[in-house]
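Figure caption, in words: inputs first, then the predicted bound structure.
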Amino acid sequence: MTFSFNLRETQPDEILQMPGLYGAAFPNEDLVPLVEALLAEPAVLSLSAVIGETLVGHALFTRGRLEGATERVALLGPLAVHPEHQRKGIGQGLIGECLARLQAEGVAQVQVLGDPSYYCRSGFRPASRVVTPYPLPAEWAEAWQWQRLDGSETDLDGRLILPAPWMRAELWR
Ligand SMILES: CC(C)(COP(=O)(O)OP(=O)(O)OC[C@H]1O[C@@H](n2cnc3c(N)ncnc32)[C@H](O)[C@@H]1OP(=O)(O)O)[C@@H](O)C(=O)NCCC(=O)NCCS
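Bound structure (coenzyme A present):
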Protein backbone atom coordinates (compact mmCIF):
# COMPACT_ATOMS: atom_id res chain seq x y z
CA MET A 1 0.00 0.00 0.00
CA THR A 2 1.31 3.48 -0.86
CA PHE A 3 1.96 5.74 2.12
CA SER A 4 0.57 9.24 1.76
CA PHE A 5 0.00 12.24 3.95
CA ASN A 6 -1.27 15.77 3.39
CA LEU A 7 0.37 19.03 4.41
CA ARG A 8 -1.89 21.95 5.31
CA GLU A 9 -2.07 25.01 7.53
CA THR A 10 -2.97 23.88 11.01
CA GLN A 11 -6.74 23.60 11.52
CA PRO A 12 -8.46 24.34 14.86
CA ASP A 13 -9.29 20.69 15.56
CA GLU A 14 -5.63 19.73 15.06
CA ILE A 15 -4.65 22.01 17.94
CA LEU A 16 -6.52 19.59 20.23
CA GLN A 17 -4.25 16.81 18.91
CA MET A 18 -1.00 18.66 19.68
CA PRO A 19 -0.54 17.25 23.22
CA GLY A 20 -0.79 13.68 21.88
CA LEU A 21 1.68 14.34 19.05
CA TYR A 22 4.22 16.25 21.15
CA GLY A 23 3.93 13.84 24.09
CA ALA A 24 4.78 10.93 21.75
CA ALA A 25 7.59 12.71 19.85
CA PHE A 26 9.18 14.32 22.96
CA PRO A 27 8.49 11.94 25.89
CA ASN A 28 11.01 13.71 28.15
CA GLU A 29 10.09 17.30 27.42
CA ASP A 30 6.82 19.26 27.67
CA LEU A 31 6.73 21.50 24.62
CA VAL A 32 2.94 21.85 24.58
CA PRO A 33 2.79 25.19 26.49
CA LEU A 34 5.33 26.69 24.07
CA VAL A 35 3.48 25.33 21.03
CA GLU A 36 0.12 26.61 22.30
CA ALA A 37 1.58 30.06 23.07
CA LEU A 38 3.16 30.23 19.61
CA LEU A 39 -0.05 29.15 17.88
CA ALA A 40 -1.70 32.27 19.34
CA GLU A 41 0.94 34.51 17.70
CA PRO A 42 0.08 36.12 14.34
CA ALA A 43 3.78 35.92 13.37
CA VAL A 44 3.68 32.13 13.23
CA LEU A 45 3.44 29.82 10.23
CA SER A 46 2.04 26.50 11.44
CA LEU A 47 1.85 23.52 9.12
CA SER A 48 0.32 20.14 9.90
CA ALA A 49 0.92 16.75 8.33
CA VAL A 50 -2.26 14.69 8.44
CA ILE A 51 -3.33 11.22 7.46
CA GLY A 52 -7.07 11.52 7.05
CA GLU A 53 -7.93 13.79 9.98
CA THR A 54 -5.17 12.45 12.24
CA LEU A 55 -2.29 14.80 13.05
CA VAL A 56 0.98 12.92 12.46
CA GLY A 57 3.44 15.81 12.12
CA HIS A 58 3.75 19.50 12.85
CA ALA A 59 6.16 22.33 12.06
CA LEU A 60 6.18 25.85 13.46
CA PHE A 61 8.08 28.76 11.96
CA THR A 62 8.13 32.09 13.81
CA ARG A 63 8.74 35.22 11.80
CA GLY A 64 11.09 37.72 13.44
CA ARG A 65 13.74 40.31 12.67
CA LEU A 66 17.36 41.09 13.36
CA GLU A 67 18.29 44.07 15.49
CA GLY A 68 19.56 46.87 13.29
CA ALA A 69 18.76 45.07 10.02
CA THR A 70 15.94 45.25 7.48
CA GLU A 71 15.95 41.64 6.26
CA ARG A 72 13.10 39.44 7.42
CA VAL A 73 14.02 36.21 9.17
CA ALA A 74 12.22 33.21 10.66
CA LEU A 75 12.98 30.54 13.25
CA LEU A 76 12.03 26.89 12.76
CA GLY A 77 10.85 25.05 15.83
CA PRO A 78 9.45 22.97 17.27
CA LEU A 79 9.18 20.18 14.68
CA ALA A 80 7.55 16.89 15.60
CA VAL A 81 6.65 13.69 13.76
CA HIS A 82 4.77 10.92 15.53
CA PRO A 83 7.13 7.96 16.19
CA GLU A 84 4.79 5.61 14.28
CA HIS A 85 5.33 7.72 11.17
CA GLN A 86 8.97 8.79 11.39
CA ARG A 87 11.43 8.14 8.53
CA LYS A 88 8.71 8.46 5.90
CA GLY A 89 9.67 11.92 4.66
CA ILE A 90 7.12 13.84 6.77
CA GLY A 91 9.69 16.00 8.61
CA GLN A 92 11.51 17.02 5.46
CA GLY A 93 8.18 17.49 3.69
CA LEU A 94 6.98 19.90 6.38
CA ILE A 95 10.25 21.85 6.33
CA GLY A 96 10.34 22.06 2.53
CA GLU A 97 6.75 23.30 2.24
CA CYS A 98 7.27 25.95 4.94
CA LEU A 99 10.53 27.16 3.39
CA ALA A 100 8.80 27.56 0.01
CA ARG A 101 6.02 29.63 1.61
CA LEU A 102 8.45 31.83 3.54
CA GLN A 103 10.59 32.35 0.44
CA ALA A 104 7.50 33.39 -1.53
CA GLU A 105 6.66 36.03 1.07
CA GLY A 106 10.20 37.48 1.06
CA VAL A 107 11.82 36.01 4.18
CA ALA A 108 15.59 36.31 3.64
CA GLN A 109 16.99 33.78 6.14
CA VAL A 110 15.76 30.95 8.38
CA GLN A 111 17.37 29.78 11.62
CA VAL A 112 17.07 26.46 13.47
CA LEU A 113 18.54 25.02 16.65
CA GLY A 114 18.88 21.27 16.24
CA ASP A 115 20.92 18.33 15.02
CA PRO A 116 23.00 19.46 11.99
CA SER A 117 23.08 15.92 10.59
CA TYR A 118 19.29 16.09 10.19
CA TYR A 119 18.77 19.72 9.21
CA CYS A 120 21.58 19.73 6.61
CA ARG A 121 19.25 17.50 4.55
CA SER A 122 16.95 20.52 4.21
CA GLY A 123 19.70 23.00 3.32
CA PHE A 124 20.73 24.35 6.73
CA ARG A 125 24.36 25.18 7.52
CA PRO A 126 25.96 25.00 10.99
CA ALA A 127 27.25 27.72 13.32
CA SER A 128 25.26 30.85 12.38
CA ARG A 129 26.61 34.29 13.27
CA VAL A 130 23.09 35.42 14.19
CA VAL A 131 22.95 36.10 17.92
CA THR A 132 20.33 34.07 19.79
CA PRO A 133 17.89 35.95 22.06
CA TYR A 134 19.70 34.42 25.07
CA PRO A 135 23.23 32.93 25.15
CA LEU A 136 23.59 29.33 23.98
CA PRO A 137 25.88 26.82 25.71
CA ALA A 138 29.20 26.78 23.79
CA GLU A 139 28.71 23.12 22.80
CA TRP A 140 25.55 24.08 20.87
CA ALA A 141 27.34 26.50 18.53
CA GLU A 142 27.24 24.05 15.59
CA ALA A 143 23.58 23.28 16.25
CA TRP A 144 22.59 26.91 15.66
CA GLN A 145 22.02 26.75 11.90
CA TRP A 146 21.07 29.07 9.10
CA GLN A 147 19.84 29.05 5.52
CA ARG A 148 19.32 31.94 3.10
CA LEU A 149 16.12 31.86 1.04
CA ASP A 150 16.90 34.85 -1.19
CA GLY A 151 19.80 33.44 -3.19
CA SER A 152 22.56 35.00 -1.08
CA GLU A 153 25.32 32.77 0.31
CA THR A 154 26.15 35.00 3.29
CA ASP A 155 24.98 34.38 6.85
CA LEU A 156 23.27 37.46 8.30
CA ASP A 157 24.40 39.15 11.49
CA GLY A 158 22.61 40.75 14.46
CA ARG A 159 20.52 39.73 17.45
CA LEU A 160 17.37 37.77 16.70
CA ILE A 161 14.20 39.46 17.94
CA LEU A 162 11.20 37.17 18.30
CA PRO A 163 7.68 37.34 19.77
CA ALA A 164 7.29 36.91 23.53
CA PRO A 165 6.95 33.08 23.76
CA TRP A 166 10.56 32.71 22.59
CA MET A 167 12.00 35.42 24.86
CA ARG A 168 12.68 33.10 27.80
CA ALA A 169 16.27 32.20 28.71
CA GLU A 170 15.39 28.58 29.62
CA LEU A 171 14.44 27.82 26.01
CA TRP A 172 17.99 28.58 24.90
CA ARG A 173 20.11 26.66 27.39
C1 LIG B 1 13.50 14.60 13.87
C2 LIG B 1 12.16 14.30 13.22
C3 LIG B 1 11.33 15.58 13.13
C4 LIG B 1 12.41 13.76 11.81
O1 LIG B 1 11.17 13.58 11.16
P1 LIG B 1 10.97 12.37 10.14
O2 LIG B 1 9.67 12.57 9.46
O3 LIG B 1 11.21 11.09 10.82
O4 LIG B 1 12.19 12.66 9.15
P2 LIG B 1 12.27 12.37 7.60
O5 LIG B 1 11.45 11.15 7.25
O6 LIG B 1 11.98 13.61 6.85
O7 LIG B 1 13.81 12.06 7.44
C5 LIG B 1 14.25 10.86 7.93
C6 LIG B 1 15.72 10.75 7.82
O8 LIG B 1 16.33 11.64 8.76
C7 LIG B 1 17.15 10.88 9.65
N1 LIG B 1 17.09 11.48 10.97
C8 LIG B 1 16.04 11.60 11.78
N2 LIG B 1 16.42 12.22 12.93
C9 LIG B 1 17.75 12.47 12.80
C10 LIG B 1 18.71 13.06 13.63
N3 LIG B 1 18.43 13.56 14.84
N4 LIG B 1 19.98 13.14 13.16
C11 LIG B 1 20.32 12.66 11.95
N5 LIG B 1 19.43 12.09 11.11
C12 LIG B 1 18.17 12.00 11.54
C13 LIG B 1 16.56 9.49 9.64
O9 LIG B 1 17.54 8.53 10.01
C14 LIG B 1 16.17 9.34 8.19
O10 LIG B 1 17.30 9.02 7.40
P3 LIG B 1 17.20 8.01 6.18
O11 LIG B 1 16.20 8.63 5.23
O12 LIG B 1 18.58 7.99 5.62
O13 LIG B 1 16.71 6.73 6.74
C15 LIG B 1 11.36 13.22 13.98
O14 LIG B 1 12.17 12.07 14.05
C16 LIG B 1 10.94 13.64 15.37
O15 LIG B 1 9.88 14.23 15.56
N6 LIG B 1 11.78 13.29 16.38
C17 LIG B 1 11.48 13.60 17.77
C18 LIG B 1 11.41 15.06 18.05
C19 LIG B 1 12.60 15.85 17.54
O16 LIG B 1 13.75 15.45 17.78
N7 LIG B 1 12.32 16.95 16.82
C20 LIG B 1 13.33 17.77 16.20
C21 LIG B 1 13.96 18.73 17.12
S1 LIG B 1 12.97 20.14 17.41
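The mean pLDDT is 97.
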